[in-house]
Design goal:
Blueprint: H1 10-16, H2 21-29, H3 32-58
């Protein structure tokens, strides 16, 4: 693989239009501890959503 930035992968170029780079920049401004805390909070939210979904499915 070449390190020449002028030569780009067409697959990567296709995905670039759908990426919000401002979110990437904002996240990179945070410390590692802040990013990990956000990750933990997101995981807790996902777990709660999963539990809520299971409760809804079980209800008659």
């Amino acid at each position: 693989m070449t390190s020449d930035r002028a030569e780009s992968d067409p697959v990567i170029e296709a995905f670039k239009k759908d990426i919000d780079r401002t979110l990437l920049r904002e996240n990179l401004r945070r410390s590692v501890a802040e990013r990990l805390a956000n990750l933990v909070a997101l995981q807790e939210l996902a777990e709660e959503a999963r539990r809520a979904g299971k409760r809804v499915v079980r209800e008659p």
